[in-house]
Amino acid sequence: MTNIFKTTILTLIGCALYTATTSADPKTPNQEPNQPDYAKPITPEKLKEDLDFLFKTIKEVHPNIYAYTSKEEFKPIRAELYSRIDRPMNCREFYKLVAPMVSEIKNGHTYMWPFSFGGKDKVFPIALHWDRENAILAADYGANKLPLGGTILAFNGEHASKIIQKFGRYHAAEGKNANLRMVEHHAFLWFWLKLEYGQTNPLVLKIKTLDAKIKDYLVKPKTLQEIYKANPDLNKRRAAFGSYRYIPEYETGLLAISCFTSDAEFRKFLEDTFGKIKKDKVPSLIVDIRKNPGGNSVLGDVLLDYLTDKPFRQFEGGEVKISRQAGNLRQFQREFPDRKLEIGCLVPIEVSFEQPKYNPLRFQGRKFVLIDGRVYSSANSFASAIKCFDIATLIGEETGGTTTCYGDCLHLELPNSGLKFDVAHKYFVEAGGKPDGRGVLPDYEVEQEPEDTAKGVDTVLQFTLNLIKDSKSN
To answer: N or C: which terminal CB in the chain sees fewer CB atoms within 10 Å?
Structure first.
């Protein structure tokens, strides 16, 4: 395997997701008390310069900008965007125009970042589950006494599906120009609700409860400081990349991996965790990667090494675009010493199998992996390897990422507005990957039930625990 794959970062939303909720830097624009930078008007000329920079950069960096939307289809979309820049705009207004246009490229790793939040910024502290048709209220972090499990019919009088569709177009799915499941990541939902409705007046939700009653509920905005102080578990999940606990009544360990980040700490966490699992002689293990947005794919290899002694790989191959933004030619020449390189060329990448060595902490019992539509990027490639090499039983929903995709983002910034954006500069074929636009499919398809949400029950986890229990009794 080439080193360029070994060091790949396949982050779909990881950086943006955590930056959106954790920034406390006093220099961040929205820390200004009176006239924050994002509210200051920018001239049309400067905004169009940003668009020129954006399009030029994407074209130079991306391996195939027209993979899903043809040049002929994209040309009028781009022209319309330029025509709408006819007056001074602030960053909020500019983002609302540009982000959906970038999504028309239909590449999950090429997108506009949301703004950073400061601790004193106010947001509407709710979480949603999108069941492909309805917005289900999944959490209330602001003590608004909302009916969990209820279906949201309207936001401030606007039909819920219209709002979800609008938010979904700010961040594309691979091969699609909208990703509705992104509203399930609370940081993005909070940003988009704030973008749409501000942060001063309450948000009115029309909700149909589980007993079919329809009523309006007020959601008061709260600062991030207030939310995390009142919800310490949410704060722990935000700061951690993983957790482990033993469920004695089912004789099962539950290892939750929320992201593949923090290399040294992640490796130490796995070593300690699997040491404890071996010491306690745990017979069954559940690895929960639901909601995992990705991170460093190398850490997926590290985790896989604890789960199988058979050869494996997360990727079958791919290609990298050589660009000035991605690095200088000397750097790439060291990676590909036998190839003649030039700026703009595509270089195929071959990927060899990982050959697991002796690992005294390798888990030998029954293994289950939980997945859902919020699994992306390197978490998706991890799930692909699990599926392709039959390492564990997959339970839950089809993943949100696809098994062939453009990824490995370069993090860039527009010169005038300061808006940040990511551009993919590699193409990947994951283990067993097919260019059919599908994610990794579970062996058992199980979705969260609204009734369980209301009772605080994890439908997918409980199904898995029952499966383990039933198998022992047979």
So the answer is: C
C-beta of residue 425 within 8 angstroms of C-beta of residue 331: no
Domain presence at residue 89: no
Which tokens sit at 304? 């896989």
Q: Is 267 in contact with 306 (CB distance < 8 Å)? A: no
pLDDT at 3 over 80: no
In a domain, 79, yes or no: no
Whether 328 is covered by a domain: the verdict is no
Q: Report the CATH number at residue 149.
A: 2.30.42.10
- Within 25-64, residue ranges assigned H as helices are 44-61
CB-CB contact of 170 with 183 (8 Å): no
- As a whole number of angstroms, the distance between CA 60 and CA 330 comes to 18
Reading the block at residue 65, the tokens are 């900008």
* Structural domain that includes position 208: 122-231
Q: For residue 215, is it within any domain? A: yes
How many domains, the chain? 1
| DSSP H or E segment with residue 272 | helix 263-279
Q: What pLDDT digit, counting tens, does each position of 232-274 carry? A: 888 777 667 899 999 999 999 999 999 999 999 999 999 999 9
What does the block give as tokens for 55?
Answer: 């399009």
State the pTM of this model: 0.91
**Three-class DSSP labels, 117-144:** CCCCCEECCEEEEECCCCEEEEEECCCC
Model pLDDT for residues 359-402, shown as the tens digit of each residue:
999 999 999 999 999 999 999 999 999 999 999 999 999 999 99
State the chain's mean pLDDT as an integer.
91
Tokens found for residue 248: 């004695």
Report which of 45, 12, 46, 2 is spatially closest to residue 423, judged by C-alpha positions.
Answer: 12
Give the residue among 473, 470, 467, 471 at the shortest CA–CA distance from 444.
467
Q: Is 441 helix (H, G, I), strand (E, B) or coil?
A: coil
Residues with Cβ within 8 Å of residue 452, at least 6 apart in sequence: 149, 458, 459, 462
